[in-house]
Amino acid sequence: MTKFDNLSLERRGSFLYIIINRPSKLNALNHHTVEEIREAIQVVYDENSIKGAILTGAGEKAFVAGADISEFTELSEVSSRKFAENGQEVFSMIENCPKPVIAAINGFALGGGCELAMACHLRVAVRSAQFAQPEVNLGIIPGYGGTQRLTQLIGKGKALELMMTADRISADEARQLGLVNHVVESHDELLSKAEELLSKIVLKAPIAIEMVINCVNAVYNKEEDGFQTEANSFSICCKSDDFKEGVKAFLEKRPARFQGK
Ligand code: COA
What is the DSSP letter of 225? Predict the structure, then answer.
């Protein structure tokens, strides 16, 4: 597997751990790290033996404390648009990944860190984690899809409040808002909870899981008729061997053995 500078990739069985590894900078996302995330997610797409991924941060302090502010001095009107579009592209790759990607939020998820977590399919956070979109403090706005995904996840009123006040919220508040799926007490429990969720999902029919992801993402794609996507996806599932196996297993009162075909 490729060697990364700012990520550690670990295979544990059929899961790929993608660990953002710049703890001295609280795992802030510089351009190079964003490109490495692109490469790592491509591995999840391409490698058949990988069934799902867990994205987390190195250390106990930060998941990701935002985009790397030290690179902001170089941004011009033109390059800043590219900066945002490039980050959006990588984060959309995560959101559209046909295999489940879970964010295990081990500390600060600020700015681009919160945006990265929101691009994942599910989010588990340690109770001490904190969330914010503090970009207005710097005179900017979220640029990696945060204005869209935060609004999708928690609704307009709360999203506007968080983005306009730059307030930091706790993991419990984030869960109450629907920003986080589960909160655990300790760092030790974080990865086991993420793995527990992933293990449950990968036992289901992989094509059906991929279609669920596609259909839910279609809700937010203005060019797509989500109901049409659902009907198409339903029919794709029905021609799979896994559908036959799922029904047969039910009738034979045994667990299904899905092959992803
Ligand atoms: N970009 C670049 N470097 C960052 C960073 C970021 N987003 N967040 C933290 N760092 C760096 C700090 O500059 C510092 O580096 P240094 O030791 O070389 O000076 C190191 O990480 C540790 O951060 P520090 O601020 O000393 O830790 P802290 O515990 O006092 O504060 C935070 C933690 C998260 C509250 C604070 O680092 C912070 O506010 N970061 C920026 C958050 C932000 O605005 N993110 C959105 C960007 S759009």
Answer: -
